[in-house]
Amino acid sequence: MARATLRERVRYWFDNTMSKGTAALIGWLALVSAVLILVVSGFALWLTPAEVKDGLPGAMWAALMRTLSPGKIASDGGTAPYLALMLVASLGGIFIVSILVSLLSTGLKEKIEDLRKGRSRIIEAGHTVILGWSDQIFTIVGELVKANASQRGSIIAILADRDKLTMEDEIRSRLGDTGRTRLVCRTGRPTEPADLALMNLQDASSVVVLSPQGEDPDAHVIKTLLALAKRAGAHPPTVAAIADSANMAAARLAGGPKVHLVDSDDTAARLIVQSSRQSGMSVVCMDLLNFDDGEIYLRADPSLATRTYGESLAAFKGATVIGLRKSGTVTLNPPMDTPIGTADEIIVIAQDDSMIRLAGSAAKVDATAIVTADRAESQPERTLILGWNSRARKIVRYLDGYVAPGSVLDIAADHPDAGADLPGLRHLTVNAKDCDTTDRYALESLSIGLYQHVIVLSDDRYAAHHADTRTLMTLLQLRDMQTALGERYSIVSEMHEESNRALAEVTEADDIVISDTVIGLLLAQLAENQHLADVFGYLFDSRGSEIYPRPAGDYLKPGVPVGFATVIESARRRGETAIGYRLASGVNHPPHFGVTLNPDKSQSITLRPHDSVIVLAER
Questions:
Q1: CATH number, span 128-257
Q2: Taking the domains of the chain in order of start, what are their residue ranges?
Q3: I need a surface site. Which of 55, 61, 513, 614 has the fewest CB within 10 A?
């Protein structure tokens, strides 16, 4: 190949210089201006020395003024050569000023575009960082705004591969005013270390990693956890949601010890099963997970060290005791004779941490209103699952652990995998039937009145919105059939989008589990209070005590006004912890659907036969 010529080398150097951006272009423009001024000044001194004042400096000043302000030539006078030279300077000035304005405008536009993209580094401290984007982000941001409502200067920083202004507009349109909490959005890929550097992670209070929408979301989460683990500097506590339980081990290895993982499918499956067993379970869990009303706190109070767990249940006026943390191990509803040590922490539900204070005196207990009812022996049951999806096998296996031997589970769905791969069930006999769950005649052929519980699952072969639409059609058919035939069975439905809850409430389903909302609430809680991970893990585990809404008649004489302290005492005698109640008259009234948690212990309540007492108890 021939060697490059001098002309080619100069042009290559010039191209490289021009590619350096606006600053380089302005530099070249300044050089051209200086050459023009020097040339015009030199000719003016040579051709018209009598009309030039103060020699070369005066000539250069005159040329500079005509270059920067071409209109100044209109007031000039002198010989033709002098005016011609000033005209050349003015014409050159028009060219130079025009290019300068264009360069400044283009450079400013590029800078605004860069700012719009959100590529500047965040200079904050104590902020919560959210990595990724999904529908859960609206739940998480909304809950964090509530949690920080009383704090000034709270900041939520979001990094996602989306346009900065689009993210801000979507959050603003869904959540409205965020009060004292400021949102900072940045455009970037959470899996890229260079983009993570924008978020000032070493000074963050916590990090939330979201699963993106689309195929194989866990791969994206695991890659993000790897990028977080490999970065230098401090590593704040991190929470992340994993969709497939099979990926939990890989995610733990990628994230390290400071990452708390939420198994989305497992948590949703457990909640669906528990809700199918006890009406109102999902409402209770939602109330515990959100920041609207009662929240869970851990408090150490040495003054309780001389008491047992049972004696501490009525110790607080504005808080409800639900468990203990001893030597780092959480137990909800431990044995009533469990002694409280000086280093032990009490787990309570309270409206605010300021409400966690010991009562001056014990609330009055009406022993005459307490009844003793033997717990009924569990009997074989018939349960119907309508629809099928990827978490259905977990639901069946968890259900098998709850029901009595001899129970029957029928699965009606047109999904090709419905009822397949379910070996090793101990208590359930499973039958699968092909059925279009949105077809009225197909549903009537199932004789649904024979079942005690019906679970409607969202079909994951369809997009979330379409799947929810099909679920709504099934719920409407079931409700109409119940009304027409006078049948009664519990209905628990799974849905994807929180926006469809209001529509589903028309169907009067006993429980509606919005799995994405539940996981979003759980992530928000753990982002604010990482120490509650063990509490919620225990709460959603089938081992140990769980939440049960049980008939009020098992605890109190129906229709007798009592304080909630009497309910607590009645439950304590049964080895249970009462945390609230549910009124049958409010089961169809959002947002709490008749559920009241952590009521005032001295406030009088009257529970009827169809009302429930919400307790933590062994199965």
A1: 3.40.50.720
A2: 6-117, 128-257
A3: 55
Q: Report the pLDDT value the prediction gives residue 410, as an integer from 0 to 100.
A: 95
Q: How far apart are CA 615 and CA 564, in angstroms?
A: 12
Alpha carbon separation from 440 to 452, 470, 473, 510 (Å, rounded):
20, 12, 9, 20
CB-side neighbour CA atoms (13 Å) of 282: 30
Residue type, 507: T
As a whole number of angstroms, the distance between CA 551 and CA 548 comes to 10
Whole-number pLDDT of residue 397: 92
What count of other Cβ atoms lies within 10 Å of the Cβ of residue 177?
A: 7
- pTM listed for this prediction: 0.78
DSSP state at residue 373: -
Joined together, the tokens standing for residue 227 give 């990028």
* CA atoms within a 13 Å half-sphere pointing along the CA-CB vector of 589: 8
In words, the CATH class of domain 6-117 is mainly alpha
Q: What angle do CA 14, 16, 17 make, to 5 degrees?
A: 65
Spell out, as residue ranges, where the chain has pLDDT lower than 70: 1-2, 4, 10, 12-22, 50, 54, 63-64, 66-79, 82-83, 89, 93, 97, 100-101, 103-104, 107-108, 111-118, 375-376, 505-510, 542
- Please name which of 358, 273, 380, 353 lies closest in space to residue 601, comparing C-alpha atoms: 358
**CB distance 149 to 182 below 8 Å:** no
Length of the chain: 619
CA distances for 229 relative to 186, 233, 527, angstroms = 21, 10, 18
- Packing angle between helix 55-68 and helix 22-47, nearest 10 degrees? 130
Dihedral angle, C-alpha 421, 423, 428, 434, nearest 10 °: 20
pLDDT in tens, 437-481: 999 999 999 999 999 999 999 988 888 888 889 998 998 898 889
One-letter amino acid of 176: G
Same fold, 6-117 and 128-257: no
Distances in whole angstroms, Cα of residue 312 to Cα of each of 216, 572, 600: 48, 11, 16
d(CA 220, CA 254): 12
Which residue is associated with the tokens 């060697």? 3
347 touches 321 (CB < 8 A):
yes
Give the integer Cα–Cα distance in Å for 303 and 580: 25
Q: How far apart are CA 578 and CA 388, in angstroms?
A: 35
What's the token pair of residue 359? 């009562």
